[in-house]
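<discrete_fold_record>
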Amino acid sequence: MGYRKIRDELDGHKGIHVNDKRVLRICRKYDIKSNIKWKPKSCTRGDRNPDHIAKNYLHREFHAEKPNKSLAGC
């Protein structure tokens, strides 16, 4: 729990009105740190440095008679 949530808990549930800067200062004094939740790494990467480029089978030359007809290059 970070200093913002601690301040919200004090203000909302305990009725203690305190500034978040004071809570941050106390947390730093007693070395109270929050756990940082990292996003899981996915298999897709950014456009700047692609590792794999899919082959262009259709070459932008297709006419779909029905919707979703040429999804797999059929």
Q: What stands out?
A: The longest helix spans residues 3-14.
